[in-house]
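To: structure subgroup
Subject: Chain for Friday's discussion

All,

I'm putting the inputs and outputs inline so they're searchable in the archive.
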Amino acid sequence: MKFVFNFIIMSNNIVLKRGLDIPINGVAAQETVKTVKPSVVAMKPTDFKGLVPRLLVREGDKVLAGSPVMADKNCLDILFTSPVSGTVAEVVRGDKRKLLEVRIKADEAQEYVDFGVQNVASMSAEDVKALLLKSGLWTSLVQRPYGILANPQAQPKAIFISAFNTAPLAADYEYTLGSEVEAIQAGVNALAKLAQVHVSVNSASSAFAKLQNATLHTFTGKHPAGNVGVQIANISYIRKEETVWTVALPLVAAIGKLFTTGKVDLCRKVAVTGPEAVNPAYVNALPGVAMKDLESFYAGAENIRIVSGDVLSGKTIGAEGYLGFFDTQVSILKEGNTHELFGWARPLRLNQFSSTRSYFSWLCPKKKYNMDTNLHGGPRAFLMSDSFYADVLPMDIFPLYLTKACLAGDIEKMEKFGIYEVLPEDLALCEFVDPSKNYIQDIIAKGIDLMLKEMA
């Protein structure tokens, strides 16, 4: 039976007993091997759910880092600004002239729009909001439910920040952002003007455990403990008609630098990872950087898949693609397009990982595997058991019934089983362990699309 709590959970030390860390090879060595100086950077409206883009530039226009390139037709105050200075080289459109990318050829010497150094302590909430909108960094805020662009007119009950990432091979924030605590503190101070801020860390010794002007929570557990959606569910879950905002930690640092330097600086350390990556490590790069600029990490490799993000919830972009706005990781895997004869009848399979004890991987708990994208089977009917998912999802929902409600388009049951609390990434592990090989994240995404359409 599902218990409904009528109070807000506010524990500061939370131990999650459910979850799964996937033992995949290809973790990035903690060294930054180069700074990527991009020739072309792509801004992708598809990175932002709910965005109806209005183009503000034409091919050939000159832009500075921080100049507006797009706006949201639903709220023209929300601007999307260029991460680099340069020339608009190409506007890429798809079916029905849908705007897919705006490609900007970067200048050799970068120039920035000067928004002025600000004293956050003396600013009002409206002042902070106005600067975030003008600079384009308002797009860093994601609104839940549904994971859409934050509505400037909404008043969230809180803002949540995850200061660690437990996804497979994820960038280590202690390494990538440990030296930017002052910028992160400035970002937290600015966000605290808008709503109460909650920051989750995975250790009391974390570089971010001493952040001020926020409520700190310590989480212990396996993936998806680092997912901000799981943290919200265990701190103050989202009720119907409630709104919360989330901000990724690298973007909190960018917000802080906006207030302390007056510039939009989105440069970040990106982890290039995966079993097929050559000498996986970190690079300094901007969102929208081309995968061609990272070719040295997969030179000579054939039959590979390049993913912007982690292997569970990232997007396949290929060698011709560009890094997503929110991503701090690139994953390189082998395409699993080979068939294993009578694989179901081979009980040993020493090089295969199993989250259960189907194979003997449980005897080698520290072993890492060269995983590929092979599903080892095709989609089929759901098995009527929630136990597969309950072991890996530390949230008070029924993922199987939520998924089936999304398939059926039953809004009442979607609400009942927790559609307001999740985004597709929160159920990525459910998809990984699903014996029926169903694309659970896609199903949840379509359910969210239905909610946006019907509940608007």
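Points worth raising on Friday:
Residues 1-10 have pLDDT under 50 and may be disordered.
The CA atoms of residues 148 and 322 lie 21 Å apart.

D.
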